[in-house]
Design goal:
Chains A, B: Its EC number is 4.1.99.17. The structure is a homodimer. By secondary structure, chain A is α/β, with parallel strands linked by helices. Chain A is built from 19 helices and ten strands. In chain A, the strands form two sheets. In chain A, strands 3-4-5-6-7-8-9-10 form an eight-stranded parallel barrel, surrounded by seven helices. Chain A has a two-stranded antiparallel ribbon with strand order 1-2. In chain A, helix 13 links the parallel strand 8 and strand 9.
């Protein structure tokens, strides 16, 4: 029996207990969420021995960091180093999105090294293998695709990202619809190319039952990847995006009916005033399935600073009850992130997630801010550093400037405001 | 006659023409905004020969960078370097917030070097001079304070930040109200200390007519600084903050009646769900006066990453029609920013401002995103770099990874998605 089926039978598993403990909620709350499909548990049943992570309604907003082999310059060692730094920075999951090189070895290494649930996008490997074997990814064999999907599931991934909603009808419509940037999803673009070249329906849609069989067999969570992810503000919330979301809604129902946990992936590029609206739409069309957003980026112009851009959209999304933020690094649109960019990407996403959790009133979320602000008031620098989202960076920034010792922050020079206030208003507090 | 009085008489000045030209609006639109008080023009009449900057309703959201001497480690040369880097990064104004050292010389240098309007907070200098002269800032003489204010106005600053709304009643109430962090504003804390120690009303409130006389004489814009700025989420939107805002409302009326342009300064720390509400409150209580916000920070825990934190709050503020964002750097709460932190602080604020402008539908704002996305689709890398918010950084990030030459972005390795799509969907576009 899968985790979802167990939950539907009213039983609480170890994974649900562990998630409940981490989140500070009742195990029954988690069970109910899993049964309803508003919560998925990544890294649960029959997977590797990792701490399961709950994603969904009423839980802390989670973040994911992507690594993987891309092109000649990549190396497994560097990607492993990125996994380590992403986990140090507090990512909740790792996605190995390798598109080239020794993808099997990279995935094995990822699963060995990562202490968090791992997600993959098996289509990338199937495309790469077809390309190697036949010289072009459009010659990818459907059997090969399903073989790779099962290979990843069997290896122990926690969630499989698959572009199951990209139908021929949607591709044709997108061609007519005059999108500025028709396809920016790597998988979506390749899959569309395959579909058009072979004049065949998307095998992940057409054979969704096979997808479900594998997901069910290994009890792995499905992440319905959006091939029609808008790649610029101009295309946000257009018919292609929404069409695919309606298909996702059907697939969510089918997945649940087959005992398979499922979440939905989302944009991408969205102006601020469409973020909440998009999340609400997903929750409606996809029957409350957890929403896993990529950014979203709220402007197209922040090249080199897309981690900041994504933090803005991510915070709004989390507030609007998106459940899971895929990080965007400052290398987005122009290259592959280095280690420091991975670290900053994770932290930026965590700031967004936490700000959203505070705003949506997640029980306990504000307590962290409260404790840090108490430490600020009490001029307890060590405690401030401990409570900072990234204590190492906080200490580094603080120590970069010679301070006046532990009692002050070096902000005010000789005429420290906090001394004035504590002297005259008779309360000890931090001022800067 | 002041700029405001001229506008009220229906006349359009050179400054209004220049602002209209920069903003792509009609000069009459600017005149009307100035007359109504919903727009202020910084760096206008009788000031230095700088390009005037319009701040307010219907105009592009502006950003300001703060520099200044703080403590022994500061140097005028370093602060001058920061002015240059802030202006290169595209700040609209500079605030010189020196609290120690040779403040006169620093200000003169700032006015010499900056090509944008300059704001100051004269209270800081008055406190420092009192401290030097009498050994304590609480012995600051009221005459000295007004002398410094006039000194700054005469030197040619474009806007004067003054804590005119911090009354004894508000200080007393804040003492009783149980704020977690009663006073985090440097000026507010010192001024409260002075008021309590001397048992006297705030001289900037009590003698607001004298403030207006100076502002009128030099036609300088007033920025009503919030001494009760909340310093943590727990204190956001509390009675102390709102009390002071109601006083600002009275002072806005008085200023306008005296021909003085005025804007209002705001928080600080605010959770996401209080950002729009705070902006709406200010627009109501302060009769549509331009709102100049500091961040706001949407969580207390992002030590070392507060530029990202502030970008989230700034974007929401700009969308909610705040008019002017004071940058926050990644050194906030722990030290003084270095040059790179200044640069990132400005860029983060500009991302926020632009995202807000797009969302609020500012005419023309989305055009920039559209143009950059067109360049992306067309794989025109040089144009993408030119259109990036920070072309230098964009190029640096792009060049950090050896690419596949100008036609590609090095993202996809050998199996480039854009080639598949352009081959099979017969449209040239960028995919990564």
């Amino acid at each position: 029996m899968t985790l979802l089926e167990t939950a539907l039978q009213g039983r609480i598993t170890d994974e649900m207990e562990q998630v409940a403990l981490q989140e500070g909620v009742a195990p029954e709350f988690v069970r109910k969420g899993v049964a309803e499909g508003t919560i998925v548990i990544l890294g649960g049943n029959r997977n590797r021995n990792v701490r399961p992570v709950g994603v969904g309604k009423g839980l802390r907003t989670k973040v994911s960091a992507s690594i993987g082999l891309y092109g000649e310059e990549s190396s497994i060692d560097l990607e492993v180093a990125k996994i380590r730094i992403a986990e140090e920075a507090g990512t909740d999951t790792i996605m190995d999105l390798s598109v080239s090189g020794d993808i099997d070895q990279m995935l094995q290494k990822t699963l060995d090294v990562a202490s968090t649930p791992v997600g993959t996008l098996p289509l990338y490997q199937a495309l790469a293998e077809a390309s190697r074997k036949f010289g072009s990814s459009v010659q990818m064999d459907v059997e090969l695709l399903f073989e790779v999907i099962e290979r990843h599931a069997a290896a122990g991934v926690g969630f499989l990202a698959l572009h199951c909603g990209l139908t021929m009808g949607i591709v044709e419509r997108a061609k007519r619809a005059g999108r500025l940037d028709p396809l920016v999803s790597y998988g979506g673009a390749h899959l569309s190319g395959w579909m058009v070249a072979n004049n065949r329906e998307n095998p992940l849609y057409e054979n969704f039952d096979r997808v479900l069989d594998i997901a069910r067999k290994y009890d792995v969570v499905l992440s319905l990847a959006d091939g029609m992810r808008p790649g610029c503000l101009a295309d946000a919330m257009d018919a292609a995006q929404v069409d695919e979301m309606t298909i996702f809604g059907e697939l969510v129902r089918k997945s649940r009916n087959n005992g398979v946990q499922v979440m939905v992936k989302g944009p991408g590029h969205l102006p601020l005033h469409k973020v909440k609206e998009t999340v609400v739409l997903e929750k409606n069309l996809c029957h409350g399935a957890p929403y896993f957003v990529f950014g979203p980026l709220v402007t197209d112009i922040a090249v080199g600073y897309d981690q900041i851009n994504a933090a803005i959209g991510g915070a709004l999304s989390a507030w609007a009850r998106a459940d899971f933020l895929c990080y965007v690094t400052s290398a987005e649109h122009v290259g592959i992130p280095d280690r420091e960019q991975v670290r900053e990407g994770v932290i930026a996403a965590r700031i967004a997630a936490h700000a959203g959790d505070v705003a949506k009133g997640l029980p306990g979320a504000r307590e962290w801010d409260f404790q840090l602000s108490m430490a600020r008031k009490d001029l307890d620098w060590e405690r401030q550093m401990e409570l900072a989202l990234d204590p190492e960076r906080a200490r580094k920034v603080k120590n970069a400037r010679r301070g006046r010792g532990e009692s002050g922050c070096a902000m005010c020079g000789r005429y420290c405001a906090m001394e004035i206030v504590s002297k005259y208003l008779r309360t000890k507090r931090h001022v800067c």
